[in-house]
Amino acid sequence: EAGVTQFPSHSVIEKGQTVTLRCDPISGHDNLYWYRRVMGKEIKFLLHFVKESKQDESGMPNNRFLAERTGGTYSTLKVQPAELEDSGVYFCASSQEGGWTEAFFGQGTRLTVV
Amino acid sequence: AQTVTQSQPEMSVQEAETVTLSCTYDTSESDYYLFWYKQPPSRQMILVIRQEAYKQQNATENRFSVNFQKAAKSFSLKISDSQLGDAAMYFCAYRGRTGNQFYFGTGTSLTVIP
Fold first, then answer.
1. Mean pLDDT, all residues of chain A
2. Which residue of B has its CA nearest to A93?
3. Which residues of A46-65 are buried (b: 16+ CB within 10 A; e: fewer)?
């Protein structure tokens, strides 16, 4: 069974440009999460989808970030326009229902804004 | 809000020796789950071990065990007979029973010395 996959693995863009990150969760997982880790800091929650609906987007830093989950399958996270402080590693995770269940993570996308 | 603290940014251990990674958390909830995740270099984060807060018995998975102290809100990870493949970044995480968001610490980078 395929795990959580993220594209691209690395992205270097200039300030002001747009970048779109993609996440394909494990098939059948209704829950999909986006997290971000800035160097040396904790992994911070961005938002949570249940199927195609945004359950919690309290962690989204500002309106330059837009997340979608088409048909409850894959998800995209667009940053437009990118700023220097957006640099970090963006993780996607998916899980089945239930607090006991673990989250399965993708390998992350390392975003560098220069 | 829940917070997770890992006070050891870096740790090292001799191969075959034992190491303990610290984690404390803050919550007002009485029922929750705690996790340790491991992220090897350039690879996906994977679950190492998990603990249900209502269980007094400490979880064990082969060479990995936890010391869960609910009153002290402490959840340390002990790795016995350390192996080279244990070298990774380790993240402690918290999840409420009813919630779906994971809260992570800043991580501990573990080096295993041959």
1. 92
2. B45
3. bbbbeeeeebbeebbeeeeb
A residues 1-60 lying closer than 8 A (beta carbon) to B: 3-4, 31, 33, 35, 40-45, 48, 50, 55-56
| CB-based burial, B51-74: b 16+ in 10 Å, e otherwise | bbbeeeeebeeeebbbbbeeeebb
Residues 51-110 (A) with a CB less than 8 A from some CB of B: 55-56, 91, 93, 95, 99-100, 102-103, 105-108
Asked whether residue B101 carries a pLDDT value surpassing 90, the answer given is no
Phi, psi for B2 (deg, rounded to 5): -75, 140
Query: Which residue of chain A is at minimal alpha-carbon distance from B49?
Result: A102
- Whether the per-residue pLDDT at B98 is higher than 80: the answer is no
